[in-house]
Amino acid sequence: MLKIGLFTFGGGYAMIALLENEFVSNKKWIDKDEFLDLVAIAESTPGPIAINSATYIGYKILGFSGSLTATVAMCIPSFVIIYIISVFFDSFLSVAIIASAFRGIQVCVIYLILSAGLKMLKQIKKTPFNIVIICSVSICMIVFSIFSVKFSTIFYILISGVIGIFANLIISLQKKESKE
């Protein structure tokens, strides 16, 4: 966690690809399906997604002490770096090479977020329900962005969750009726 917290720019979404690489591929502490569930839960609970993910993984590995250690290890490096930058921020940006570095980092962050999203998209089960949800949310996000409609991503998550609950209830009722 310390390594991810120390060397990742761009916040929690940029860390998703690194978290997956470290804990699914390298250490094999969780599998791909559990990682997808972890991201969904971490996104829908209060707090930054990277910290929520780190807390979950730490708890799974070592219980409460693991969750505490993972959370602190994820937060401290970023806090220290942001604090140092904030003290000298105006001075940093007045140096052309540092301002250029920040512009380059912005592009990298966009890539990291897109990469994590595409990896998760490839891993998700291709059921009709999942495809409809993905397409609907993508179309809404694009249309709302084009027409400058303010719609919080929280609502996408909540609406998709409610639709998932209703779809599950309908499927459960249909299975019950077919058994009778």
What is the number of E strands? Answer: 0
- Secondary-structure content class: mainly alpha
Shape: globular
Largest sheet properties: none
Helix-strand pattern: HHHHHHHH
Give a brief outline of the structure.
This protein is mostly helical. The chain has eight helices and no strands.
What can you tell me about this protein's structure?
The chain has helices at residues 2-7, 12-26, 32-44, 49-87, 89-94, 96-123, 128-146, 153-179. Helix 2 (12-26) packs across helix 6 (96-123). 85% of the residues lie in helices and 0% in strands. The mean pLDDT is 84. It has 180 residues and is mainly α. The protein has two domains: 1-124, no CATH class; 125-180. The longest helix has 39 residues, at 49-87.
List keywords for this structure.
180 residues, 2 domains, 8 helices, 85% helix, 0% strand
Q: How are the elements arranged and paired?
A:
Blueprint: H1 2-7, H2 12-26, H3 32-44, H4 49-87, H5 89-94, H6 96-123, H7 128-146, H8 153-179
Helix pairs in contact: 2-4, 2-6, 3-4
